[in-house]
């Protein structure tokens, strides 16, 4: 048995070490997630996970940390901010139909790598203090209910748009976890403060937030542009605007983000001019250039084919200009049937607008 006083002191030290490593907050949660498990089961039963079969494949391991990692008693939940204070600029990009909108989290280096590296350093620091201990670190890399755990660790509450919201920092942040066998004292779970606000539900371009705290992934632009590998449903394409990788509208509309602090983490600075690139410019990337420019980026997840599919839809929604039409025509005979179909849809949409 580890001495409770020692564990309390260690918990304080862990928070301090986390801050030294660049985390804005580290909290400690227990592993009881019964209500969240029921919510997850209902969401899966309604098919609202779409083609994300892995969500169902892991069963209850997602909501039972000790089944995923035997021996787990506590979860260290860490928050790293990536807000840039450019919400006005983000809205402006969304209004410029010929420019591409990439979700703010994906503009720089892949956060998974940044977070995992720092979580490992935190685990090493703990081991250096107390000796070997049981742990595993995760950054969206295993069946983990990260937002529920972060809530229980006091990092924020789950908003009506399903993102985590921190009262003093908004929602522009990443989460990572360390599952551990250390009997650390747990933090007080965060209380909810959405109140009667429904701005996120109202602003969602595809009405994917079908009810408070309920997102139907099959309608979500983040799902459509990243997770879905097939054709994007035609009825949703016009609603996607110029969003080619992910979507931030619900966070941009959230009043709590007026408290988000600008964070200039070098790894999260925009690469390849993605915060101001035109759709035609990005559509011209051949696969070799796509792979080179997206090295170390979350955008790699779409693959080149998915990248072109997404941009073709955005070009179909763009103003009818010579540059837009020329870009689409350049991919009319692309080897991929998926790309060709979306290009044909976009060209037909412009033809109808004439």
TrEMBL record:
Its main location: cytoplasm. [4Fe-4S] cluster 2 binds at residues 204, 220, 247, 250. Pathway: tRNA modification; tRNA-queuosine biosynthesis. Residues 182-214 form the 4Fe-4S ferredoxin-type domain. It catalyses: epoxyqueuosine(34) in tRNA + AH2 = queuosine(34) in tRNA + A + H2O. One of its GO terms (biological process) is tRNA queuosine(34) biosynthetic process. Monomer. This is Epoxyqueuosine reductase. Keywords: 4Fe-4S, Cobalamin, Cobalt, Cytoplasm, Iron, Iron-sulfur, Metal-binding, Oxidoreductase, Queuosine biosynthesis, tRNA processing. TRNA binds at residue 229. Pfam families: Fer4_16, QueG_DUF1730. Binds 2 [4Fe-4S] clusters per monomer. One of its GO terms (cellular component) is cytoplasm. The keyword Disulfide bond does not apply. Its EC number is 1.17.99.6. Catalyzes the conversion of epoxyqueuosine (oQ) to queuosine (Q), which is a hypermodified base found in the wobble positions of tRNA(Asp), tRNA(Asn), tRNA(His) and tRNA(Tyr). It comes from the Bacteria. Belongs to the QueG family. The active site is at residue 140. [4Fe-4S] cluster 1 binds at residues 194, 197, 200, 254. It comes from Arenimonas malthae CC-JY-1. The keyword Cell membrane does not apply. One of its GO terms (molecular function) is metal ion binding.
């Amino acid at each position: 048995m580890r001495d409770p006083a020692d564990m309390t002191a260690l918990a304080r030290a862990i928070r301090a070490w986390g801050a030294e490593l660049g985390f804005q907050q580290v909290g400690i949660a227990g592993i009881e997630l019964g209500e969240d498990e029921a919510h997850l089961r209902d969401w899966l039963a309604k098919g609202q996970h779409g083609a994300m079969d892995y969500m169902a494949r892991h069963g209850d391991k997602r909501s039972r940390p000790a089944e995923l990692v035997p021996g787990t008693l506590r979860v260290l939940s860490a928050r790293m901010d990536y807000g840039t204070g450019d919400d006005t600029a983000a809205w402006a990009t969304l209004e410029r139909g010929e420019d591409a909108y990439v979700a703010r989290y994906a503009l720089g280096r892949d956060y998974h790598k940044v977070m995992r590296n720092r979580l490992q350093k935190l685990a090493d620091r703990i081991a250096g203090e107390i000796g070997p201990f049981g742990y595993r670190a995760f950054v969206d890399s295993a069946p983990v209910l990260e937002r529920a755990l972060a809530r229980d660790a006091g990092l924020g509450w789950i908003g009506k748009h399903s993102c985590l919201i921190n009262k003093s920092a908004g929602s522009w942040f990443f989460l990572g976890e360390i599952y551990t066998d250390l009997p650390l004292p747990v933090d007080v779970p965060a209380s909810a403060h959405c109140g009667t606000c429904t701005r996120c539900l109202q602003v969602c371009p595809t009405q994917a937030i079908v009810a408070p705290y309920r997102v139907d992934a099959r309608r979500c632009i983040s799902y459509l542009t990243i997770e879905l590998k097939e054709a994007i449903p035609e009825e949703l394409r016009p609603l996607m605007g110029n969003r080619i990788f992910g979507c931030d509208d619900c966070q941009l509309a959230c009043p709590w983000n007026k408290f988000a602090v600008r964070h200039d983490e070098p790894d999260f600075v925009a690469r390849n001019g993605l915060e101001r690139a035109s759709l035609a410019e990005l559509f011209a990337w051949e696969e070799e250039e796509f792979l080179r420019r997206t090295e170390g980026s979350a955008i790699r997840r779409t693959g080149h084919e998915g990248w072109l599919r997404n941009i073709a839809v955005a070009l179909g929604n763009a103003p009818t200009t010579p540059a837009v039409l020329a870009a689409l025509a350049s991919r009319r005979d692309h080897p991929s049937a998926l790309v060709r179909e979306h290009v044909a849809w976009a060209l037909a949409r412009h033809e109808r607008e004439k």
